[in-house]
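Below is a typical protein record.
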Amino acid sequence: MLSRLATRTARIVLTAIAAASLTAAGTATALADNSGAAGSTADAAQKDGWGQVCGTNDLTFKVREETQAGGYYLVTAKAKPGITCYLEGTIPSAAFGSAPDTQASPAEQAVTDTIKLSGSTAAYAGISPKSTNTDYGKEFRRLIVAVSGDETNAVSLKLPSTVLVDEPITTNWHAKRADAVPFVN
């Protein structure tokens, strides 16, 4: 009889522990689900003075050829109509092709300021297709650009002319066009 009562008591205790665990897990899940809700992250970010981080699909891109610093491409990014977002001052993901040696490396050592894009406000990055002092390289007619971390939505930009590419470099995103010149050592 004693063993039967002990078993019954053990079952009651185990049931109480299991119920408490399920309640705690349910509360934790509800909190986790709430923190991932669409508005709550954005609301928290806006209270801190930040808004939506720019994704590649939030922006329009233009490219033009510049002659300063031996020649480079100036990429201009603007927010699409109705979008306000923040572009981090890191390098864009930029490449002239799919081979690893055509991806642009950083021309700067530090991160620059975050840029708020909205309306006519633009961000600029300078991309030098050739950082070597040789006649070697591969020829390309397109530049592939994305916001760093959002490469799956990259856009392909037609270049004004065919370019010889060898160890390309890129500046960070800048609010001023003059700061986006990639000087080659």
